[in-house]
Amino acid sequence: MIKFEIKPIKYYSSTLLANVEHYVLIAEKDKKRILVSIPNIYLYRKSRSSMQTSKRYATLIAQFYRFLSNFEKFKLVEPGDYHIHVSNVEIRHWQIFRQQKRISRGTPHPTSETIYSDATTVYYFFKWLSDEGIPTGVKIRLKTWIANFKDRRLLNYLAKKTKLSLDTDPIRVLDKQARQKKAVHLIKHSEVKTLLSAYPDKVYAVLFNFALATAMRPMELVKFPYMGNGKNRHILPYSQMDSEIKSHDYNVFGKGNKFRDIKIPDYALKMLEDEYIKNEYPARARLYRKKFGKKCPLSILFLTAEGVPVTPSMIANATNYAKRLAVAKDPSFATTNIFYHARKWWPTMMMVQHHNGEDILKKDAEVMHVALTQVIINQMGHEDPSTTYQHYLVLARYLVMANRGITHETIHEDALNIHEALEKFG
């Protein structure tokens, strides 16, 4: 029997002349551990910019390979050659298998949407193989890898396998339960206060506030420097910057190994200095020097109370812990709140204020405003203008409908103060 597992690795790349890190896929067969080359090359090429992304890609490929190992046709195939023998049919069967398990357990997760999304991630691995000229049995131009869970014949098959009556339509019911648990909402002002007070380490509260003001992802936040260089050489502690400028351009290296220019409001830099740099950073930097034997680089700003640079996974873990404390303080605190919700306030308030508050409820607000959308996708790092616009239009309408009578003047990106917006909209 073949076992598949994933492991994080870090090494020096002679091609890039830099240290890189990503996850790798390891197969265990006949008491031997084998690095599965082709998936690992893919993980190196496509996921080394984010360990979270790398872990997700590696986990899904490992899950799919484990599924394949149960097929008779793969019994005599070496793990490193799976990609040659797999076809569209196996990707579809994997989706059906996961849906079958979900129905049998009677749980809402993974949803049909998640199952399809995961299969798409695996499919793009095979698309990359095709683009690179690496042999694979997956036909990229054919959509036969997609499992249509609305198809009557497939529903009949699943009902038979899971011994459930088709009349109950188990897939639809379970998906509905999942949607009820995953309501679209913005974290409330009272919840922000509770969460900020629940973080055991001040640095995470500061990062959350900084995310509210900038819409940066956790992987981008942790790279924000004490002092910038290159394109960001003008980024300094607030007291050393020009106080007449209300927002500052900042060049972000973000998701997908792409650079983009965003706006950092001066009040956010002031918050960093007042709440972290003046009182917290000096002691943490000394601990960094003691721990690592060298002065903390100016490229690193956010350090834990132990003097360790903050990572995205640390943010996630600290937030999960803080959420438990927040619920203990206030039982009404929504457990569905996550750190990433801080990122949603910026584009939502941009949308509300551009449409003069309640005007956003009018039908013509649905027509995509090109300039506004460009500002939002630049700040967020999104690629699909239409989807981005519609998503934040929905959130903005939620907000206005819940706060009738509260409107804002037309906003400019240089003047957007999310902390003030939270006070008004809650």
Structural write-up:
- This protein is mainly alpha-helical and 426 residues long.
- It folds into 3 domains: 179 residues, no CATH class; 141 residues, Orthogonal Bundle (hpI Integrase, Chain A), CATH 1.10.443.10; 84 residues, no CATH class.
- Helices cover 50% and strands 10% of the residues.
- The protein has 17 helices and 5 strands.
- It has a 3-stranded antiparallel β-sheet with strand order 1-2-3. The chain has a two-stranded antiparallel sheet with strand order 4-5.
Summarize the structure.
Helix 1 runs antiparallel to helix 2 (51-68), helix 2 packs across helix 5 and helix 9 packs parallel to helix 14.
Strand arrangement in the largest pleated sheet: 1-2-3
Number of helical regions: 17
SS class: mainly alpha
Which residue ranges are poorly predicted, with pLDDT under 50 across at least 5 consecutive positions?
404-415
Oligomer: single chain
Which characteristics define this entry?
3 domains; hpI Integrase, Chain A; DNA recombination; two-stranded antiparallel ribbon; 426 residues; mainly alpha; 17 helices; three-stranded antiparallel beta sheet; DNA_brk_join_enz; 5 strands
Secondary structure topology:
Blueprint: E1 3-13, E2 18-29, E3 32-35, H1 37-47, H2 51-68, H3 82-85, H4 88-105, H5 112-131, H6 152-162, H7 170-181, H8 189-198, H9 202-214, H10 218-221, E4 247-254, E5 258-265, H11 266-277, H12 281-292, H13 312-329, H14 342-354, H15 370-380, H16 385-402, H17 418-425
Antiparallel strand pairs: 1-2, 2-3, 4-5
Protein name: Tyr recombinase domain-containing protein
Organism: Pseudomonas silesiensis
InterPro entries: DNA_brk_join_enz, Integrase-like_cat_sf
